[in-house]
Amino acid sequence: MIEIGADDRTWLLSGPTSSYALRLTDRDELLHLHWGPRIALADAEALAAAPTPPERPFESWLDGREEYPVEGGPRFVRPALSVRGGGVRGTEWRFLRWAEGADGELQLHFTDAVHGLQVTLSYRMRGDVVERYAVLLNASTGATDLEVLRADSATWTLPPRERWRFSQLHGRWAAESRLVRSELTYGERVIGSRRGHTGHQHLPWMALDADGATEEHGEVYSCALAWSGSWRISVHRLPDGAVQITGGSGHDDSGQELLPPGTAIATPVFAGLWSGGGFGGTSRTWHAYQRAHVIPDADEVRPVLYNSWEATGFDISEEQQRALAERAAELGVELFVVDDAWFGARVSDRAGLGDWTPNPDRFPGGLGPLADHVHALGMRFGIWVEPEMVNADSDLYRAHPDWVQHYPGRARTEFRNQLVLNLAREDVRSHLWEQLDALLTGAPVDYVKWDFNRCFTDAGWPGEPYPQRLWDAHVHGFYDLLDRLRAAHPTVAFESCSGGGGRVDLGVLARTDQVWTSDNTDPLDRLAIQHGFSQIHPARVMAAWVTDSPNTQLNGRVSSLRFRFVSAMAGVLGVGGDLTRWSAAERAEARDWVELYKEIRPVVQLGDLYRLRDPDGGPCAVQYVRGDDVVVLAWLPAQAYGQETPPVRLRGLDPAAAYACADTGAVHRGAVLLHHGLRTGLRGDLDAAVFRLRRLADVTDATDAYSGLAQS
Questions:
Q1: Which homologous superfamily is 620-709 in?
Q2: Separation in Å, CA 433 to CA 339, 426, 438
Q3: Which of 450, 473, 508, 515 is found 20 to 30 A from 142 (Cα to Cα)?
Q4: 551 in a labelled binding site
Q5: Which terms are listed as keywords in the entry (predicted)?
Q6: Interatomic CA distance for residues 691 and 51, integer angstroms
Q7: pLDDT value for 55
């Protein structure tokens, strides 16, 4: 909902619990007024009428107050917009008009007469999430191109507080999404990626809280960027204590795009959320926003999958894949995925990338016969691809060595024996479209795992007049290709992967059905990774696998099948072990776990998440609530001194209701579960348990209360 002040220069956007207000001065300065609890238009107008701060000789009164600071004029903060054209740099804009666009979008239009530049700032409330982005149009009638050195999506202004605490998700390969909180000191703190993709090192999300917010109480401000390439978020605490957050695509100010007259660009969405419900309330609002407005078909649960990679590596054959598929079907798996090495000369990581046709020695009849066999077993069929990469030892590279990113006269750096195709080039995208469309048309493929295993290093584009635009243009090329494939093959699901969790963001989630959270499948490590991931993204997109024990990929840890399954059941369950080596007893136990997961899946994937105990070395637990159904997953890494594991206090329940537990047969009062907790009975090392509860309509009758839990 948008409300406009009497003079058409104050705007108020409101969601269910929050409001966002801004004001245009008589000098066309766009000022921030309010972001926080829901207020009335009269409150916003009172804020607009408040006196401005006094002038100070070495400071600008605009700093820390503008909605979108530009380069030039009386400003010293980091500019959100920097342009150059005709030898003139900076921006001096004048307000043109405001308009209301689709879905209640507020559009504020400005113009710079010298550059002929038109800037549109857009705001839209999605529930309590504010979506913001900017559109730049070169509207000049001359022949001068405009160079966009930097165009951030938004600048967010926070209210004055004594102390701020900064939360971020940092990491590396196999250790993504680890949550850390620290005091926000004066100056700038910058997170981002210079790697051409979202990156393992930081998720494009951050949060700020003051006054010691907890999991379920206190104010939290958080922002997330919908962009899958290089990016930057700057959090600036100014000398007077004001805090501003600026973010967008690109990692520096060296140049993003060249705009000829008549052309325009739009920045990615930079979304912001205020919550008064602590970090848990913040997460649940982000999850609901993504399920409602970002993720395709988010109301449909994702299938249990089997992936062959950890069982086979590069040594695969059709016969071997058939045997694994038969074992997977026995477990109740619903989607069978052939990972790397089905194509070209791909017998190792040194060859074959770029040649997306089945290896004739390994799959003499192509992928069709295997896909038909998988379908006959009652499962869907999926494949792994890495379209943006190429090996030097490939037919594609031998035919088109100029298609990769490179600097003329310089060595072409290889990581993982790979080079990066330049998807900013139309001929490269056309070739990939033809190959991938033929692949999906020629065999009954239901699912594609799209990987990206190589960061940008030599991001050159020989022959391009403005090669700096490659950084953003490659991502737009990736988006365009994926959008085109989804439109042509609407029944095919896509997973985003990038050496694990290297490409996880709101931009890629708008185009994929789930993401690969991490290459680390160790069930204990995964608890911390999944805890951080859940700060922003829902379980509905968080792929997690059960693999072999000991964990041969990373740490050799030995864990029970129970612990591995309960860890992976916190998201979209998958299996990735070598099933031909599993005993009959292990397969029977796994079948029971898969059946249980299918029962609780609607609650886990579509319900509200409550983080009950953090994975800090002690007992850990999460809870999901959907309607009357409740699921609790609990883990105990180690039992110290023989002490009994403390009860887990549940959340989000009706204290006046009773809840029946399908696993123990007990009936619990809601108030008791909330204030005294649920006893898990966990003991020893690496123990885990699942609890299914259902709210009773009649607290005096528990008969059949827990049968058919979570059916939908």
A1: Golgi alpha-mannosidase II (2.60.40.1180)
A2: 20, 10, 8
A3: 473
A4: no
A5: Glycosidase, Hydrolase
A6: 57
A7: 80
